[in-house]
Amino acid sequence: MCRRWSLRRWNSQSSESVYGNALTSIEKDVAATAVAAKATGAAHKNTNSTSTAHDEERQNFRPLSLLLNARFISVAILLSTAAAFFVGCVARIFLLSEFEILPLNKLHILDAEISLVEGQAVKFAPRQLPAPTVLPGKDVPYTTYASKTFQVEGSATSHTLHIDRRNAAPSTSSSDGGDSHCEEGAVPNTSEYAASLSEDEEGDVHINDYSHNDDSDGLHLPAGQHLLVDIKDVDSAFLNSEERLASAMVELISESKLTLLSYHCHSLVPIGVSCAGVLLESHVAFHTWPKEGVITMDLFTCGGNPLIPVLPSIRNLFGVPRTPAEGEDEGDIPEPTLLWSHKLRGFRDGFAPGYDRYRNPLDTDLGQFVLGKLDFDLKEEILSTKTAFQNVDVYDVLNPGAKSMDSYLKSLLNDGSYESTHPEQFGPDRILFLDGVIQSTRYGDAPYHESIVHPAMITHPNPRRVAIIGGGEGATLREVLKHNTVEKAVMIEIDEGVVELSKEHLPQWQDCSNIAHHEKCAEWCFDDARVDARFEDAMAYFIDNFSDDVEHEEAAYDIIIMDALDPNDDIEFAVELYTSDTYIRSLYNALTSNGILVVQVGEVP
Question: What is the DSSP letter of 205?
């Protein structure tokens, strides 16, 4: 219709133009074509009626338009996003429960709560973890920070905290050292730190001032200390609380006088927490198993400050006893058990001029055979101090290969069992170390001291005067006093501090209460009237009184027992005791004509 109307209009407008004749001819042709088409359409009227109807509908169709404002579009996007998020969360929950990662009966979506241990629940609410802080007066250099967090299904929450410098002292570090980190001096003043740890509330000395890696001298050795700690029977709710664990870690580092630059914690699915902290001195990290009541931790520092004094703080902060369940007797709940190991790490030989491992107690017997062992059922520091001459350490250890922990616990009861009536057979071994070298043990006391004393005392026909060189713990003197022929027992020990410390911490070594056959005996061996304890240099004493070129005013001895350091220990002073011709000659001169010299020469090859 439109086309025919256009042709007619075009024809009426152009009939008077110069092209009129041509247009008239075209119009006639079109009309003829239309007549022919009409005839054809009549012949196929029935078959083409549907097509004609569709053509007419298209001709009459007009497109529809819809106007949407911005508010409607925004609301629609938000609603569709929320719906998609909800569907995704529900799908994730069902998928996790399908693979038994997150039991559905333990999850409460409405109050965002997950039941971790039966009868207990932990909120997944926004956490406010404590930020690391700078110790007052401590100089902390500025550092750069880089991190990468990977989103995994096993992590429920993730937090990273950085040091709060608002209370930090202004930096005074310079290019010549003084910063308190691994490469620029981990301890600005190690002696002050050791002093702050070395006295308890009563003023007693508590810890050796080991200087094995004192960075205050500017050496900055590529070395450090590693403390590994395992604790069991810990409260499960504490082990699953990211906030409480993070607070304990921050407090531990503060009490240890270290600097925590930042830390990162994850609460895990379904339970457990893992944390790692970056120290100015190195790192601290731990992981927990709440259901099993176990936490494992490691602390590494590259400074000279000793780490062993940190153990009481670790026990107090992380060894939280289990909360009694309903109807459970509090007395039946075991105390948390702490196993630990301390190791020296890195390299000292070749980097520290003049470094001698035998002068470092942590690098000798003490470090190798006690501190470095993690499998002892019990390892407890009884004493760690320093006298005017040497380091003194006393430890109680229970080696599972030699003693049973169950038998030891039974021996502490008053139940009439064999263990409780013979506790001396099941207790831990007590070990004395001087400058880190083993000197005596509880279970080795009798075999060693009896063998060094009695063969010579029995061999001599009438031993009346006996000299003991060393033997500050008192056990050699105890064995000598058991012989009723003894009239004088002279003990020459350079370190009176060892005698006093042994009296308090090794009373069994100096116990003479079972010697009842002599009228001059006493319960404490050094109170025996026959004892003459001289606290002086034994080598100087014998050279001054019994060398070849002096007049011998001192009376000679029937027995001389040299209970000194082991020559195999490679200690300079100990070697001199066994190699000085002048000293050995003076010992010979100090003996009576049938006198006997007893020398402890170390282990048999």
Answer: B
How much of the chain, in percent, has pLDDT values that exceed 90?
44
d(CA 543, CA 589): 10
More confident residue, 323 or 489: 489
* Distance (Å, whole) CA 579 – CA 567: 10
Pair of tokens at residue 555: 């009376």
Cβ proximity of 428 and 403 under 8 Å = yes
3-state helix, strand, coil in the chain (%, to 5): 35, 25, 40
Residue 184 token pair: 């620029």
- Reduce the DSSP state of residue 402 to 3 states and report it: coil
Cis peptide upstream of residue 270 (ω within 30 degrees of 0): yes
The neighbour count for residue 536, using CB atoms within 10 Å, is 12
184-211 as b/e: b if 16+ CB within 10 A: bbbbbebeebbeebbeeeeeebbbbbbe
Write phi, then psi, for 441 (nearest 5 degrees): -135, 155
Give the count of alpha carbons within 13 A of 169, CB side only: 10
- Sheet harboring 294-301: ordered strands across? 155-162, 260-268, 273-279, 282-289, 294-301, 223-232, 337-346
Q: How many residues make up the chain in this entry?
A: 605
Distance CA(237)–CA(231), nearest Å, equals 15
Q: Are the C-beta atoms of 208 and 391 separated by less than 8 Å?
A: yes
The CA distances from residue 179 to 195, 307, 373, 554, in Å, are 20, 20, 33, 59
Q: Token match 């038998």: residue?
A: 407
Pick the catalytic residue: 563, 566, 569, 581? 563
Closest by Cα among 496, 501, 493 to 467: 493
SS3 500: helix
Look-up of token digits 């409460």: 108
> What secondary structure letter does DSSP report for 487?
S
CA distance 245 to 134: 19
Coil, helix or strand at residue 264: strand
Q: What confidence tens digit (pLDDT) does each residue in 42-73 have?
A: 544 554 555 555 565 555 555 666 677 788 88
| Phi (first) and psi of residue 388, to 5 degrees | -70, -15
Q: How many CB atoms lie within 10 A of CB 440?
A: 24
Report helix, strand or coil for 219.
coil
Sort strands 294-301 and 273-279 into parallel, antiparallel or unpaired. unpaired
C-alpha 513: how far from its chain's center? 44
| Integer Cα distance of 102 and 94 in angstroms | 9
Handedness of CA 7, 11, 17, 23 (dihedral sign): positive
Backbone angles phi, psi at 215, to 5 degrees: -75, -5
What distance, in Å, lies between the first and last C-alpha atoms of the chain?
A: 125
Select from 264, 261, 257, 263 the least CA-distant residue to 279: 261
User: Is residue 603 a contact partner of residue 568, using CB atoms and an 8 Å limit?
Assistant: yes
What tens digit of pLDDT does each residue of 214-237 get?
444 445 678 899 999 999 999 999
Average pLDDT score over residue span 456-462: 96
Report the run of H or E that residue 593 belongs to, with start and end: strand 591-599
Q: Please indicate whether residue 563 is annotated as part of the active site.
A: yes
